[in-house]
């Protein structure tokens, strides 16, 4: 009898916790926004992203073919992009402006052509 009551309480608690997490994922400020970026010889998809200065993002990085990286030199960022796996990296841009990201890992003849434009806005 006691056990059943305990289980019921635990279930109610779990359900309410799950709904709290869902609300946060739906855009509340304490959950970083996920930005999914794919690399493929010799481009990024999307080719352009817009971020807000000072906000934290979860960059969800992967490659659709060979290993690449996403390097934003001016913002001190370099994240690995591995085939068949996602690399989640938290990133908080500290400067506004337009920046060009490139590939930091040699991936073939078109390597130097890889670029992604990062717009960082003040608000
Ligand atoms: Cu490359």
In terms of topology, how is this protein built?
Blueprint: H1 2-25, E1 33-40, E2 43-45, E3 48-52, E4 57-63, E5 68-72, E6 77-81, E7 87-91, E8 97-102, E9 115-121
The structure holds copper (II) ion (CU).
Task: Provide a descriptive summary of the structure in words.
The protein starts with a helix and ends with a strand. A four-stranded mixed beta sheet has the order 2-1-4-7, with no helix packed on it. A three-stranded mixed beta sheet has the order 3-9-8, with no helix packed on it. It has a two-stranded antiparallel ribbon with strand order 5-6. It has 123 residues and is α/β, with parallel strands linked by helices. The chain has two domains: 1-31; 32-121, Immunoglobulin-like (Sandwich), CATH 2.60.40. It is 20% helix and 41% strand. The protein binds copper (II) ion. Copper (II) ion binds at residues 68, 103, 105-107, 111, 114.
């Amino acid at each position: 009898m006691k056990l059943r009551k305990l289980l019921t309480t635990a279930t109610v608690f779990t359900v309410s916790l799950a709904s709290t997490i869902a609300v946060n994922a739906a855009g509340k400020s304490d959950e970083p926004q996920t930005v999914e970026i794919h690399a493929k010889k010799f481009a990024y998809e999307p080719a352009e992203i817009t971020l807000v200065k000072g906000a934290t993002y979860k960059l969800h990085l992967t490659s659709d073919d060979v290993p690449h990286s996403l390097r934003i030199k001016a913002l001190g960022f370099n994240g690995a992009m591995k085939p068949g796996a996602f690399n989640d990296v938290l990133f908080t841009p500290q400067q506004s402006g337009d920046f060009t990201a490139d590939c930091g890992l040699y991936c073939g003849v078109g390597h130097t052509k890889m670029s992604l434009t990062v717009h960082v806005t003040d608000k």
